[in-house]
Write a structure and sequence with these properties.
By secondary structure, this protein is of the alpha/beta class. Helix content is 28%, strand content 24%.
Length: 666
């Protein structure tokens, strides 16, 4: 082995590290480690001066390896790798020691302990780095087509941004129409403009765009391949209507004799026919037959829709169609689902008649809804004289969802305005904290207070119809402790609106596994980095946008959709992308063909080659996670950049006695 010359750089990170770790001492001590020819400390290694120091030292001292002791590699490993590359050193001959999160921040009250731990981590990095080898990234070509999964506002925005740039998009939506939850809303906060007026032009643009193939009433079943070269299998479910012939005239659903409760778009408050279009502005405009409720599929009779269709577009024998599309990038915009208030039995939803969810109220107040915008009780006639709006239902609650749902405060304020505008009823808002944090939101909050809404700070413990006084007879009573006046209260009202929180879709884990996108503790898809890379996932070429990444409002969903589109367009414009070379490799001459690694790989990157009786890694799919390396009983899988020699050397380095006068291994 040629002479190894290591440079060590220890960062103060302002007071983040230096406030606990004796940085100067760590740098002086590190100078005595084997193969170290230069050791320095710096206030901010990530700043231009710190990076330039590394570049200069690589040239001046002919460094063969570099170690930086600073923060998490998630923050700045790429920064320092780039600095090495600019100086002509292979970036994989760099190693990072995390002495901020792993030393300073966890030993805040023990400066000596933090300093000694920092020395151990630097020693481990120095011992390891000399065993690292130059690696070269793998280049793959990028197909210009993109798949967007989810046709809500985030998915629509993403698709339009990419399509307007001249690249083809496949937009897949599981419902019969695009539009998502936003299509169900009446008005949007804080401007109170019509939700449909904002959304439907974008829906039309997406449905008619020459560069968008709209696959509504469809679901992705399988994803194979890797960034630049994904093959996706999509099931296009049978509408039982020939879209090439249908004009969307409406004759079929007007004459259909079967009515069923619409549990999706009308939230159970209205009805639709057995053949139906979800809502008047639906895109595409074609209806769909509800097979479960259609008389023909039950008894073979009726066929009224077929008889009245002027273009003979009804196809009772139509079957699902399987499509395979090839794309270079994928954007997940699968959205959210509302918390089911039935999970909180003391709120009485589903048991007490006039307790409504936020989505039910959206449909009540919508001019195109089941009551034509009239706010009435369940009897469909009586207008409420008093209304309670309960915030944070299922949110900020460790029993259900600990996260804030981001939209509940403002949606509740909007509901208060609509109730007072349309009925003149007295409105009570029961809130924990008011979070009106975006542009125009605080002003909207004050506007609602000026309009006369009452605000009671306290978590509602129970909603009951058990009256204690004559004034409570026939009313719903909300029981809570008003924390502003410091006493319990009972507030009788005619109607209760529960602002149910946003939570991940029930199949988020399954969808994430299919696309190689992980889910965090809250169940939403996990971004590559919460601050620096909020639209990418750990799988190259797979991005996320909208409320599938976390609870957010319409403007933030639109912004994230545009951001995801920008990332996709940047990738397409390169025509090729470099893949991280940290990949696993199987020594096929020693592989027994046990297939344990095949079943363990979370990225489906290992294939079994029947003809040779061995397993083989597809480097384009492999993410270098090391699962297969650890699982292989024969130890014939090697993880590039995480070899056995490197890991053993790192262990040897961390065992050095950092308190001894001379360097000693324990």
């Amino acid at each position: 082995m040629s002479e190894q010359r290591v440079g060590v750089y220890v960062c103060h990170c302002g007071h983040n590290i230096a406030g606990t770790v004796d940085v100067e001492h760590v740098a002086e001590w590190s100078a005595n480690l084997p193969n170290v020819v230069i050791s320095r400390d710096n206030k901010f290694m990530c700043a231009s001066t710190g990076q330039e120091q590394i570049e200069e030292d690589i040239k001046e001292f002919d460094l063969t390896h570099v170690v930086v002791a600073s923060c998490s590699p998630h923050m700045h490993e790429k920064t320092f790798r780039n600095a090495c590359a600019r100086a002509g050193l292979n970036p994989y001959l760099f190693e990072m020691a995390n002495i901020r999160e792993h030393a300073s921040w966890v030993h805040a009250s023990d400066k000596d302990g933090a300093t000694n731990k920092a020395k151990s981590l630097v020693s481990a990095a120095v011992h390891r780095v000399i065993h690292q080898e130059p690696l070269q990234p793998m280049q793959v070509d990028i197909r210009p087509e993109t798949l967007v999964v989810g046709g809500g506002i985030a998915g629509i925005q993403t698709a339009l941004e990419i399509a307007d740039a001249g690249y083809h998009v496949y937009l897949v939506e599981r419902e019969p129409s695009i539009g998502g939850h936003m299509a169900m809303f009446d008005k949007t906060f804080p401007t109170l403009d019509c939700s449909a007026c904002i959304l439907t032009p974008k829906m039309f643009d997406a449905g008619s765009h020459p560069h968008i193939t709209l696959l509504s009433y469809s679901e992705v079943e399988q994803v194979d391949g890797y960034v630049g070269n994904f093959t996706v299998r999509v099931r296009r479910k049978a509408r039982h209507v020939d879209e090439d012939l249908c004009t969307g005239c409406g004759s079929c659903w007007e004459k259909c004799p079967i009515k069923v409760i619409d549990t999706v778009f009308e939230a159970g408050l209205g009805s639709r026919k057995a053949i139906y279009r979800p809502f008047p502005q639906a895109v595409p405009k074609y209806p769909i037959i509800d097979v479960e409720n259609c008389t023909y599929y039950k008894s073979g009779k009726c066929r009224m829709c077929e008889k009245v269709c002027p273009t003979e577009a009804i196809r009772f024998d139509q079957e699902d169609e399987i499509l395979e599309v090839e794309v270079g990038n994928i954007v997940l915009a699968t959205g959210f689902q509302l918390f089911d208030p039935r999970r909180i039995p003391n709120y009485g939803y589903g048991r007490l008649e006039n307790v409504f969810t936020n989505l039910e109220f959206e449909r009540l107040s919508n001019a195109a809804g089941p009551t034509e915008g009239k706010i009435v009780l369940r009897d469909g006639v009586t207008e409420p004289e008093s209304v309670a709006i309960v915030h944070c239902v299922g949110s900020r609650d460790k029993n259900y969802n600990s996260h804030c749902s981001a939209i509940c405060c403002m949606a509740s304020l909007k509901f208060a305005h609509l109730v007072m505008e349309k009925t003149g009823a007295k409105v009570y808002n029961f809130y924990i904290d008011m979070r009106s944090i975006s542009k125009g939101y605080e002003e909207f909050y004050h506007r609602i207070m000026e309009e006369g809404a009452s605000f009671i700070r306290g978590k509602v413990s129970e909603i009951t119809d058990a009256a204690h006084t004559p004034e409570e007879e026939g009313k719903l009573i909300l029981v809570c402790e008003d924390t502003l006046i410091g006493r319990p209260r009972r507030v009788p009202v005619d109607m209760v609106i529960l602002s149910a929180g946003l939570e991940p879709r029930a199949d988020a884990q399954e969808v994430g596994y299919m696309f190689g996108a992980g889910c965090g503790d809250t169940g939403f898809f996990t971004e590559r980095h919460p601050k620096l890379d909020p639209v990418a996932t750990v799988t190259e070429g797979v991005f996320i946008a909208g409320a599938c990444q976390g609870a957010k409002d319409i403007p933030d969903s639109v912004a994230q959709g545009a951001a995801a589109a920008a990332r996709v367009l940047a990738t397409i414009s390169k025509k090729q992308v470099n893949l991280e070379p940290v990949r696993a490799e199987i020594d096929e001459s020693r592989c027994s063909g046990c297939r344990i690694c095949n079943n363990m790989c979370p990225y489906h990157a290992i294939d079994f080659i029947e003809a040779d009786g061995v397993s083989r890694v597809n480097p384009a799919l492999c993410k270098g996670c090391g699962t297969c390396v650890a699982a292989c009983p024969s130890q014939v899988i090697n993880g590039a950049h995480f070899t056995f020699d490197q890991l053993i050397a790192e262990i040897d380095g961390i065992m050095v006695d950092v308190t001894a006068g001379a360097l000693e291994v324990v």
